[in-house]
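ok so dumb question maybe but i'm new to this and my supervisor (M.) told me to 'just get the structure for Phenylalanine--tRNA ligase alpha subunit' and walked off. so i did the thing. is this what she meant?? sequence i used:
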Amino acid sequence: MTQVMETMQLEFSEKLSAIDNSKALNELRVEYLGKKGKVTGLMKEMKNLSNEERPAYGQKVNELRNTIEGQIAELEAELSKKALEEKLAAETIDVTLPGRTLEIGGSNPIDRIVEDIEDFFIGLGYEIKEGYEVEQDYYNFEALNLPKSHPARDMQDSFYISEDILLRTHTSPVQARTLEAQKGEGPVKIICPGKVYRRDSDDATHSHQFTQIEGLVVDKNIRLSDLKGTLELFAKEIFGSEREVRLRPSYFPFTEPSVEVDISCFKCKGSGCNVCKQTGWIEILGAGMVHPNVLEMAGFDSKEYSGFAFGMGPDRVAMLKYGIEDIRHLYTNDLRFIDQFIPTEDGGEQ
Ligand code: PHE
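this is what came out, is it supposed to look like this??
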């Protein structure tokens, strides 16, 4: 090696030893081996040499180039190994950290009550029917013996989509639709759960949207005692085996006679408490014998067929059963509320 080459080699080694990243290494590579690099510059000196001197000189420059290339490759390998080690260290997973647990959701108490009630009536051979929340005036009112000018419409003011289309105010239109579809042929035995709407101002016991379950039985020889017997069984199943049922006269345009149905209070067992407002009885539904006009409008012969119908509010049942004071809790989806109803493994609640 010539003096110049030796100096260049030393200088290169010194610079190389200070390098700790691949960017700087690349710059150094260009500085020495690039087109305008120092080693390449030595090659260009060849033209100033005699023919005899050239081969030996060329060989020396090549040796220098090889040495430098080798040194660069060595450091390159070292740097990439280091980079990999650092990456692995940074990505280490701490398997002792606690994992993310899956939250178990609770079901809304209304859904539970609806399911319990459905199960009970399915056991008695009832079919579940669902209707439409956006309903025609005809099925919501007229076919239920509530003509356009009927004053009882005032009790159920609704949200109107148009003159003849509204959000249903009760689940009773499912009665009218089901009867009509039967074309005058019994028996009919259905329950119809669903959401209903009324133009009420919301407070602790009223909501513009709530839930109802309708029941309807139409066949030959159905009597009021069948209604009472069915509701007695129902009350014992849902509220406890000692419950009693009481019917009080009432009025609905689509039933005649009409009744309000009370059950004996499940908290005080009839002696009077805050749940039953000291009366010993809790009102849970409206019911009655299907009005002959309703049967006739749907194409049934009211001399041959009779039936009973009832409508209840599972919201109220849920509020009574779980001691919920404000109906709005049932509809506002606050998880702190819903989480209180997470089922336990034995099928009960927490
Ligand atoms: N539809 C009535 C209401 O919403 C309840 C009811 C249903 C009464 C069936 C009698 C028979 O108030």
